[in-house]
């Protein structure tokens, strides 16, 4: 265990974590970051598993997700953020300074910013590994505008608000969007349902599950099964988008921080504060609504500013 107490420990290295680190480092708080390793996909978060990012302002030509996250990391490192490539498995927020245990390292910190993100759920159909990012994606907003989806039939799996939102978004690019749902009624809110039903380019496929994606190098179709009739058929599609929910990466904080039924951290409205004083949250770990790199980065900035102010009030910074 390191014997010094960190002023700020940041858990997670996506856009929220690195922006929090940048602001904390520039405020002379010498942040210590657990970058994460396995949980959440990899260090750098969900953007490292996507291809082109065209909706992060400042990059008019777009930038690849991994490249963008490398730039975030370089900028946070430039101002002195200390980083370790470990996952956090256990924390003790019951007394201050707080304790955080990684794979190998244990640190004590006066304040903590949690930015561990969320992981998009996958179905693990047989061809998923091969065709991931080759027409299969869990983020239509990130990938939908790619040229190979233009004017092509596309498919969204799921029946919640995200599925409807993503299907609606994809109608801007695809020739038709099949919304494939395992039941005969959507879980999405009524207003979102109406949006789906009113959209001529969305074709509902009820009581149906995805059996597999079809294609060698890119998706060319989807094999689907009607679970009421057992009928299996293949639909020609160039893209299959999962919208079956996310799992927030909050396992180590169970029992220590307030969460909703799905496990998203609950923050006080208008702040980044959790229910434990000195512990802040930023990004997809609490935000199931927007889930964008730019909103996560904004929340990371806000969390660092709040941590700085709080440490000042405690006479620590
Ligand atoms: P949800 O958990 O609400 O919906 C997931 C959907 O995926 C459900 O329809 C579910 O089916 C289906 N599903 C889950 N697992 C599988 C599986 N293995 N195979 C096939 N289908 C599956 O997740 P969302 O991401 O849609 O929404 C999460 C939260 O975010 C919600 O509270 C939502 O309201 C909110 N949200 C709000 C938005 C807004 O306000 N604009 C936009 C997007 C999300 P089933 O219905 O049968 O369980």
General description of the model:
The protein is 23% helix and 26% strand. The chain has 317 residues and is an alpha/beta fold. It has two domains: 183 residues, 3-Layer(bba) Sandwich (FAD/NAD(P)-binding domain), CATH 3.50.50.60; 121 residues, FAD/NAD(P)-binding domain (3-Layer(bba) Sandwich). The strands form five sheets. Strands 1, 2, 5, 6, 7, 8 and 19 form a seven-stranded mixed sheet that branches. The longest helix has 21 residues. The protein is elongated, with a radius of gyration of 21 Å. The chain binds NADPH dihydro-nicotinamide-adenine-dinucleotide phosphate (NDP). NADPH dihydro-nicotinamide-adenine-dinucleotide phosphate binds next to helix 5.
Quick summary of this structure?
With 317 residues, this protein is α/β, with parallel strands linked by helices.
Termini gap:
23 Å
Overall structural class, as computed from helix and strand content, comes to alpha/beta
Q: Can you summarize the main beta sheet?
A: 7 strands, mixed
Number of discrete helical segments: 7
Mean pLDDT across all amino acids: 94
Under CATH, the homologous superfamily of the largest domain reads FAD/NAD(P)-binding domain
Give unreliable regions as ranges.
none
Oligomeric assembly:
single chain
Would you state the CATH class of the largest domain?
A: Alpha Beta
> Please, how many domains?
2
Q: Report the count of strand segments.
A: 19
Per the CATH scheme, the topology name of the largest domain is: FAD/NAD(P)-binding domain
CATH-scheme architecture of the largest domain: 3-Layer(bba) Sandwich
Percent range of helical residues? 10-25%
Bound molecule types: NADPH dihydro-nicotinamide-adenine-dinucleotide phosphate
**Helix and strand element order:** EHEEEHEEEEEHEHEHEHEEEEEEEH
| Strand residues, percent | 25-35%
């Amino acid at each position: 265990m390191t014997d010094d107490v960190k002023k700020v420990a940041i858990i997670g290295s996506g856009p929220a974590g690195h922006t929090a680190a940048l602001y904390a480092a520039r405020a002379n708080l010498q942040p210590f970051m657990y970058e994460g390793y396995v949980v959440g996909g990899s260090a750098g978060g969900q953007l490292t598993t996507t291809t082109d990012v065209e909706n992060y302002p400042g990059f008019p030509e777009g930038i690849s997700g991994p490249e963008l996250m490398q730039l975030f990391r370089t900028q946070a490192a430039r101002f002195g953020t200390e980083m370790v490539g470990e996952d956090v498995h256990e924390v003790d927020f019951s007394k201050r300074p707080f304790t955080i245990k990684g794979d190998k390292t244990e640190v004590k910190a006066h304040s903590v910013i949690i930015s561990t993100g969320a992981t998009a759920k996958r179905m693990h159909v047989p061809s998923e590994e091969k065709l991931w990012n080759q027409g299969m994606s869990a983020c239509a907003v990130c990938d939908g505008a790619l040229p190979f989806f233009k004017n092509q039939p596309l498919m969204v799996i799921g029946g919640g608000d995200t599925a409807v939102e993503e299907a609606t978004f994809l109608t801007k690019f695809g020739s038709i969007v099949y919304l494939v749902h395992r039941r005969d009624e959507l879980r999405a809110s009524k207003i979102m349902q109406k949006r789906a039903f009113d959209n001529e380019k969305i074709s509902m496929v009820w009581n149906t599950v995805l059996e597999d994606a079809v294609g060698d190098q890119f998706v060319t179709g989807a094999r689907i099964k009607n679970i009421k009739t057992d009928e299996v058929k293949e639909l020609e599609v160039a893209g299959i988008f999962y919208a079956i929910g996310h799992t927030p990466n909050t396992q180590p904080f169970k029992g220590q921080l307030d969460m909703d039924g799905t496990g998203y951290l609950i923050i006080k409205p208008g702040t980044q504060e959790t229910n434990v004083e000195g512990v802040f949250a930023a990004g997809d770990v609490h935000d199931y609504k927007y889930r964008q790199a730019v909103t996560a980065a904004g929340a990371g900035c806000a969390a660092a500013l709040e941590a700085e102010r709080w440490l000042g009030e405690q006479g620590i910074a």
